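Model it.
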Amino acid sequence: MLTSQSDVRRSDISILSGAYFTFFAIVGLMVPYLSVYLDRLGYDSQSIGELLAMIATMRIIGPSLWSAIADKTGRHILVARFGSLCALLCLVSLFWLESRIGRLIALAGFNLFWTAVLPQVEVITLRKLAVIPGMYGKVRSAGSLGFIVISTLAGVAIADYGANAFVAIGVFLSVLLMANLCLVAQPTAKQQQQHQEANSDAPFWSLALVGLVTCSFLIQTSHGAYYSFFILHMVDLGYSEFAAGWLVALGVVAEIVLFWKIGTLFSRFRLLTLFQLALVLTCIRWLLMAGWPDVWPILIGSLLLHAASFGVIHACSMRWLHRNIASEHHSKAQALYSGTGFGAGSVAGPAVVAPLWQQGAGAMESYLVCAGIAALAIVVFRLTISSSSMAE
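Modeled.
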């Protein structure tokens, strides 16, 4: 019997790792190359900006919509499969849609349905792997690997084969994601209750939860200059676009290593201690970028701190949510974290730094503002999460 359970656990790990790999491979396609795809179709910069803003809006409202359905029905995996299938159909339609309004609706639909996937996968993964310390980070690292692989290779394919290569890669990855989701089983009742006994009567809303989401929003916002202008900044400093792309990949490699080691860190340090340290390191990261981006050892150090500014903060947030939110509200909590933290933060970040950047002349000021936003997250953490009596 023990052997059977072990075998199932290994298969769960493989399937969930595949789901993360393909989901974030799609992120690695969409984030860097959607604007390239639209440019090749003849869209001007204003049209591209308007479309990207609309897509970001879908990423804010979508998670709450789908997670409300998932929490009400308790069928998280069915919601994820439905969203994945509809997102796939929206991408396929781009092969023959020629009108701008048609493409806009298809891309908006893709992003709306696509947001149904990740919160549900996070809930299922945390429940299934709760009994295996540190395994969540290792499974989640597959997503970072998928991002690196596709963000590195997709540019070559699009350069050689044109705009349709973008759609073809997206469809291929979406089919793989759908296949993985079809293999994922809904957690058993025992898995759903794991680590939830002490918190089953806790209310959903709390000061600590508001603080966690606010910290997530502020930290994501603080990445605005990095996510929007890092490659352009490196080119201004004399790096090639290829070299700048590999510098970005270096940060993701550091993130992967962190996810593999996070279980060890959790066993040695208090959760909130790690969380607060990561917030401080995020602030330091942007100060380094503001002052010494042309000193390559400092630049490399700031990139390696991506392990803290994203990896540690995300892993700590997932662990905190799983331990402090009742199981019937897990999907809602994931949607709040994803939609408000990452969705709204990804909109606010570029909006804050864009007026300051001034074709690179305002790079220092932009990163100083980002450091200030990260410092504000530390204040919020101290006033809400670290002073809370909720469990770590």
